[in-house]
Amino acid sequence: MTATAETTPTASATPTLEARGIRKSFGSVDALSEVDFEVRSGEVMALVGDNGAGKSTLIKCIAGIHPLDDGEVRFDGERVSISGPKDAVKLGIEVVYQDLALCDNLDVVQNIYLGREERDWIGRLREAPMEKRTAETLRGLRVTTIRSIRQQVARLSGGQRQSVAIGRAVMWNSRVVILDEPTAALGVAQTQQVLELVRRLSEQGLAVVLISHNLHDIFEVADRITVLRLGRNVAVYERSATTQQEVVHAITAGIPTKVAGISSMEEPA
Amino acid sequence: MTTADPQAIGAVPPSNSLGAIVRRRLEALKAGDVGTLPIILGLVAIVAFFYWKNENYLSAGNFTNLMTQMAGVTTIAIGVVFVLLLGEIDLSISYVSGVAGVIAAQLQIPDESWQVKGVLAIAIAVTVTALIGGVQGGFVAFVGIPSFVVTLAGLLFWQGVILYVIGGAGVIVIEDSTINNVANYFFSDTAGYLIAAGASALFAASTLAGLISRRRHGIQTDNLVVVAAKLALFVVVIFGAVLWANRERGFPLAFLLVIVFLVFWTWVAERTTFGRHVYAVGGNAEAARRAGINVPRVRVIVFMISGLMAGLGGVIFAARLNSVDLNAGGGTLLLDAISAAVIGGTSLFGGRGRVISALMGALVISTVANGIDLLGYSSAIKYMVTGLILLAAVTLDALSRRRLERSGR
Ligand SMILES: Nc1ncnc2c1ncn2[C@@H]1O[C@H](COP(=O)(O)OP(=O)(O)O)[C@@H](O)[C@H]1O
Ligand SMILES: [Mg+2]
Question: Which residues of chain B make contact with A124, given a CB cutoff of 8 A?
Fold first, then answer.
C-alpha cells in the first residue's frame, strides 16, 4: 500500500466506483460470474485478461449498456442503479468503447457531442460553441492530423477515430474515465500521448480504468492491476509489488479466486 | 509533447478561399460524395430533352400544372426521407395518405351530424394518420419487427379500410371549399411577389444569423462569395418561379405549402437535436444508444412524421380531385414517393440524405411524367423511364457508399 500512496497521493480510501458480484450471461455463455471490481479517484486501475475474459462486458455493465443479471454497483460508496447509458453519464462515468461507438455518417463535432448537444431555448443546436470546444479539446489532446472537424468520421484513419472517441470521453466534467483498449489502433507516438493523457487524468483526481493487452504500457501508467480470466476474478495486484511475469501467469493460468458452482471452466485451447 | 504543433487542429483552419473550396469539393467527389451534382445534371438534361421535343414544355401553363401535380408526392416523400434516414422503410404511406383523404372527405359531408369543416377536418385527418404511423413505428421500435413487414401489413390493412369505408358509394365528393383550395387556390400576382420577397428575406436573415454566430464565437465563417451566391440563386429561383406562374393562374397555394414543409423539416433535420439523433440512429444505432439517445423514441417519432406527411399529401391529392374514390392511395403513388426520396439522393442504407432530396427527386419524376404525357407517349414508356432513373439513382448510392467506405480507413 505504501508504494501506491507514493505514486498516487490523491488516491482516496472509498472507491469512487465499485462493482460487487457482477454476473452476466449471454444465453448459455457466462461472460461474467461473481466479478468484483473497483477504482479509486486519482488512481489508474488496469483491467487485463485474455480475449474473451469479459473485460468489455464488465465495462458495458457498469456503463449501463447491458443490464446486470446479478450484483451491485456502488458509486462513492452508495449503491446506485444504472439502467441505461444516461444514468452512467449522470454519475460522471465516461467510456471509450473498444469499437469506439462512433457514427460514421456524422462529423467530428457531431460525434463528440452526440447525446448531449448544446441547444438554445427553442431546441436549435448551437453549432458554433460546440465546434469551438471540440477544436479546443482535440488541441488539448494534441490531435494534430485531423484537417477539418467538420468532416465525416468515415473519412478518418483508425488513429484519428480513436482520438475522436477519447475526446468525447474527456471533455466533460467526469469522475470516472474508462478506456477499453484505447491504443489498439495507434502508432508509437500516439500511444505515448494516450498514456500521458491517462496519467494526467488521474493526476486531476479522476478514477481511470485502462484496458489493454500491452503489459508494458500498463506497467508504465497503472497503479493497480485487476486480472480477469474466463469471466472471473483472478487477482488484484499493486503495480509496484508485482512483475510482468506474475501478471502474465495470472492472465493465462490464474486460478479464479471465487469458484461458484461450475468447475468446468476449462480453457478452450 | 509540449511543443505546440502549428498544424494542430484549429490552429490553422482549412482555407476557405474559392480555390480551396472547389478543390475540397472535387476531393469529396472523388471520395464518393457526389452531392446534388448528378440530380441537377439529370434535371437539366430532362428539361432540355422535352423542351427540344415540345416547346410547350416550359410554358407557364405547364409549369403551374407541374407544381400542383408534384405537391402531393413531394409532401409524402418528405416523410419518406426521415424513414430512410433511419435505415427503415414505410410501405404503408400511399394508403395511409388515402386514409387521410377519406377522413377529411367523410368529415366534410354536409348535413351529417358529425360534420367538421375545413382546416379542422384536415387537422383531424392528419392527426389520425400521424397516430397510425406512430402505432406502426411502435411495432418496429418496441416489438422489433422489421419495418418492411410492419408497413407491408399496413399497406394491406389501410387499403382494406379505404375499400370498406367508401366501397358502397365508390366516391365521396368534397364540397368544402377550404379543403379544395389546398390544391386549387392560386395567389394573385401581388401576393405571389410578396411571398417571394418574404421567403428571400427569411433566407437572408437566417444566413446572416449563422454568419454572426460563427463570427462571435471566433470560428471561421463560410466563404462570403459562396454565401452570397447561394442567396442570389435562391432569390432568382423563387422570383423566377413566381414570375413565370403569374403569366398563368398564379403561384399555387399547394406549392407554397410544399415549400413551408421543406423549410420546416429541413430545420428539424439539420438544426435540432432530434434531427441530429435521427441521423445518428441511421448511421449507427448501437452508438446512438450508448450515447444515451432514446432510440425507440426516435423511431416512433419518425414513423409518426411519415404518417403525418403521408396524410398531408393525401389531403392535397383529395383536394386536387375534389373527391376521394376507391383509387385513393393506389396506383404508382407509393413507388413514386419512395423513388422521389431515393432519386433525390437519400440513401437506402440509412444516415445519409437531406429533406430537400424529396423535392429534387419529385422534380425528376414529375418532369419526366409530365413530359411524356405532353408528348403523348403511353404510361408504359413512363414506367420504364422512371424505373431506369430509379435504378441509376440507387446504383449511384451504392457505389458512392462503397467509395466512402474505402476512403478513410
Ligand atoms: N453481445 C454479446 N452477445 C453474446 N455474447 C457476448 C456478447 N458480448 C460478449 N459476449 C461473450 O462474452 C465473453 C466475454 O467477451 P468480452 O467481454 O468482449 O471479452 P474481452 O473484452 O475481455 O475480450 C465472450 O465469450 C464473448 O463471446
Ligand atoms: Mg474487449
Answer: 271-272
